[in-house]
Amino acid sequence: xxxxxxxxKIDEQEITSLYRLEGPALERxxxxxxxxxxxxxxxxxxxxxxIGPCSSDNEExxxxxxxxxxxxxxxxxxxxxxxxxxxxAKPRTNGDGYKGLMHQPDTHAAPSFVDGLKAVRHxxxxxxxGTGLTTADELLYPASLPYVEDLISYHAIGARSVEDQEHRFxxxxxxxPTGMKNPxxxxxxxxxxxxxxxxxxxxFLFNAQAVETSGNPLxxxxxxxxLDASGKNIxxxxxxxxxxxxxxxxxxxxxxxxxxxxxxxxxxxxQFEEQVRIVRETMMNRAWNKDLATLVRGFxxxxxxxxxxxNEPVVYGQSITDPCLxxxxxxxxxxxxxxxxx
Length: 342
Hints:
Elements: H1 12-16, H2 23-41, E1 47-52, H3 59-75, E2 80-85, H4 113-131, E3 134-138, H5 145-148, E4 154-157, H6 165-171, E5 178-181, H7 188-199, E6 203-206, E7 209-212, E8 219-223, E9 226-227, E10 233-234, H8 239-252, E11 259-262, H9 265-268, H10 274-288, H11 290-293, E12 296-302, H12 327-340
Parallel strand pairs: 1-2, 1-12, 2-3, 3-4, 4-5, 5-8, 8-11, 11-12
Antiparallel strand pairs: 6-7, 9-10
Helix pairs in contact: 3-4, 3-12, 6-7, 7-8, 10-12
């Protein structure tokens, strides 16, 4: 096998020495991380929102959004805990399209993982120090974890990665909450097997080293819908779907049962405004079945400054990947969730 090498090995110490949290900023992150852990464990019954842009391509627009989100968090802090999506690595089904800040920090320039990792650290650092919020990112490249994990409070394993053994095993060594999505097929067994693997000790090769992990008890389920053989959307946020997921948790004896509903992707068919209806239905199901209310305690929502999406980064604060809910609709929805959770 032949690999075409364009650069030398990335210097981990050089990257991780940049934008390190210290003093009050570090203390605040650690305090919020403890709150987040308590929510996953069921010790804190606030609703978890992992919310923000589909992809973080424009730093200033992301910071504009983050400041608004921080103000909103303060308004709803008794009912909702917000972790901001700062997604910097995007999976591409056929390899085409924007692959995220980590891959291409300048959308008009050539890809650069060295510059990308620096940009990723800088953006997470700016959100944390500039707003007091903590952040989530998708773990697309397991090898990138050592470069960024000190800044990230919530990791997501995507629908295309959840079947991969390396993603499952690396997740077992993460100390932060890690959401495992069901695959694009919608198969719950795949997702729950991934959660089982992540929650248990593993030994494997990682970055050319033999490693052992103690397991990640904070690994949990993200329901994001799926596609049938014909490409039709099959949502999995309905009442019967939630009951089926709850049953799987019980049968497998997994730790800290927690379900987060992804309101976009194959649950909405990428019809971004449907996210509002999906949240309302889920909150009604929680109110109807109190047992579900102890289990279904979070939403992943794609939201940005402007409704929808665009093909080129022309409109400030509008997604260049999946369509997102604009700020006015986002603000109204978050306040509605807070009211329903009282």
